[in-house]
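Table 4 source record.
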Amino acid sequence: MLRSTTAWSASWDGLPQELLRLPVELAQVDGLLDDARFVEPFRPYFDSSRGRPSTPIDTYLRLMFLKFRYGLGYESLCREVADSISWRRFCHLGLCERVPHPTTLMKITTRCGDAAVVRLNEALLDKAVEGKVLRVGKVRADTTVVSANVEHPTDSGLLAKA
């Protein structure tokens, strides 16, 4: 069963503000990933009413960002997120919540495959164009082909040159 968002935990309420502040890069990415269009590529792969609840997709996306941004494996990613308050907060995990198991992340990645990544990249591109981060235009490619005689080397020709 698809869970698109995490129910925000009240376990963060008693902590000082210095611990709750995300690093600048993670805060920017967190704001970007709050858009609901990034959950849509994953909907076809999960039943909305049957089955066990999945790892929330917003948590999965943030975990995958950390994995690829810092070049971590699944096991080391889960260890690092479990140990870091700022990474837990970025991934929308409470202090007492368990970090998803590495095999769970691997199974979601395998289940959704390349098609979900392509649709996710398209959603990201649309968001970047809307925010005027990127300017897209038409590309013109010249595909003119000119034939040319190609002279392949032969054994006797190579011997003569030597």
